[in-house]
């Protein structure tokens, strides 16, 4: 028997669940530098250790777009692998605390709402709230994302 890993069909998303995406991801200086330079973000807060040491946090900050990408990416295998039709957008994204190289990022998701699509039979709209926490449990990012997901065949 073959079993293929997949995300959840529309009907399987549970409004009462908190989905914990594991393992966490320990972020390195190389991750931050590579992502920052690949995306052409020249912000010294991400690249210049000497300058950043003199700023408010005393060290470089992990690029917030890396943090966002990682918390959403960590949810894929469990929630949307092979079942998503499209990412429809982000309603809000906040970064209440910085993430630093050497921190471990943990991601979790709650389903805020879901409804069948009025215009796309066999598909539904699911609004997800992704939360990223560091190894101490401090929230470093929260993103509300709306997705279009397939219904069970």
Automatic annotation (TrEMBL):
Residues 16-132 form the MaoC-like domain. InterPro entries: HotDog_dom_sf, MaoC-like_dom, MCH/BMMD. Belongs to the enoyl-CoA hydratase/isomerase family. This is MaoC family dehydratase.
């Amino acid at each position: 028997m073959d079993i293929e890993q997949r995300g959840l069909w529309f009907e399987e998303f549970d409004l009462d669940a908190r989905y914990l995406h594991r393992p966490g991801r320990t972020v390195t200086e190389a991750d931050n530098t590579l992502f920052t330079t690949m995306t052409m973000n020249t912000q010294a807060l991400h690249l210049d250790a000497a300058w950043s040491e003199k700023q408010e946090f005393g060290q470089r900050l992990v690029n917030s777009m890396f943090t966002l990408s990682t918390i959403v990416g960590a949810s894929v295998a469990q929630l949307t692998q092979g079942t998503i039709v499209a990412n429809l957008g982000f309603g809000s994204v906040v970064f209440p605390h910085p993430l630093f190289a050497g921190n471990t990022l943990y991601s979790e998701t709650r389903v805020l709402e879901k409804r069948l699509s009025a215009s796309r039979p066999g598909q539904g709209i699911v609004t997800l709230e992704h939360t990223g926490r560091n190894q101490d449990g401090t929230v470093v990012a929260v993103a509300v994302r709306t997705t279009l997901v397939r219904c069970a065949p």
